[in-house]
Design brief:
CATH architecture: 3-Layer(aba) Sandwich
Order of helices and strands: EEHHEEHEHEHEHEHHEEEH
Helix content: 25-40%
Number of strands: 11
Strand content: 15-25%
CATH superfamily: Gcn5-related N-acetyltransferase (GNAT)
Distance between the termini: 51 Å
Length: 277
């Protein structure tokens, strides 16, 4: 009798309709994610790619090799790299230690976050092919993140999320709304580095924040807020990406596993922005 060794179960393995989400398993799949990021982040936008990125047609940096990459595949395109239609980058403590730091540390003082006991997770470089910006794609991404969080016993998630544009005054309403309604508690409040700090409280004291402020927030940021997320103090203008960034923090103990799963299964918003970290 021959014995067949069973393959280990994947930590993240989610299917919804014709979409399949799992972690990248080959360098070729990571390159496919980078190519998708390049198309979404740079083609037809004000973002500035490096010469190396333009030549290769891929968005890449020195953090990619130390991260896990969640990938959404359209199985009608097959199961290989050519089928990648969505991605999210995840970095835990071990990866940050090998790289030397978390990506967000370039914009924020995150010392209070990394001091939290247990495992922490930096999320970023999220993007979805424009043809797949539907509720189903967002739903499968959130479900995959939930499985990743539960599988690694993550205590805290954070990352830089972006609002389109580099003029903070044009973004005064949403930035002020976040500052006045969703500022993290001092013990868990990252702060923009002094050299990059842009005040978020941009409307005059006592002036009501316009009702459209919430509507101006990208769906990704609203999704984090629905999970109990908060923002750090100060925004950061990233001219290379053509965005204004905020640091989002979600402590997973604030949300029970049951609620986390219930939320992500009911998420029906499409998204059209990115989180770069």
């Amino acid at each position: 009798m021959s014995l067949i060794e069973a393959k280990p179960a994947r930590l993240v393995d989610v299917r919804i309709g014709g979409l399949h989400l799992r972690l990248a398993e080959t360098a070729e799949e990571v390159r496919a994610a980078q190519a998708l990021r390049f198309r979404v982040f740079y083609e037809g936008t004000a973002a500035k790619a490096t010469r190396g990125m333009t030549a290769s047609g891929r968005d890449f940096d020195t953090f990619d090799d130390f991260c896990d990459h969640l990938l959404v595949f359209d199985e009608s395109r097959g199961g290989g790299p050519q089928a990648v239609v969505g991605t999210y980058r995840a970095m835990r403590r071990a990866g940050a230690a090998r790289r030397g730091r978390f990506y967000s540390a370039d914009e924020y003082d995150i010392s209070k976050l990394v001091a939290v006991p247990g495992e922490v997770l930096e999320l970023g470089r999220s993007c979805i092919d424009p043809a797949y910006r539907t509720g189903a794609t967002m739903q499968i991404l959130w479900r995959g993140i939930a499985d990743y969080v539960l599988g690694h016993d993550i205590q805290l998630m954070f990352g830089c999320a972006s609002l389109a544009g580099t003029d903070p005054d044009a973004l005064a309403a949403p930035l002020t709304y976040l500052y006045r309604n969703h500022l993290a508690l001092p013990a868990l409040r990252p702060r923009a580095l002094d050299a990059r700090y842009v005040s978020m409280d941009r409307l005059p004291a006592g002036e009501a924040v316009p009702r459209q402020a919430l509507k101006m927030l990208p769906p990704l940021i609203k999704g984090y807020l629905r999970l109990g997320g908060f923002v750090g103090e100060g925004a950061v203008v990233d001219r290379d990406f053509g965005t204004t960034d905020v640091c989002v923090v979600v402590k997973t103990e604030w949300v029970t596993g049951r609620y986390f799963r219930h939320y992500i299964r009911g998420e029906n918003e499409s998204r059209d922005e990115n989180g770069k970290s």
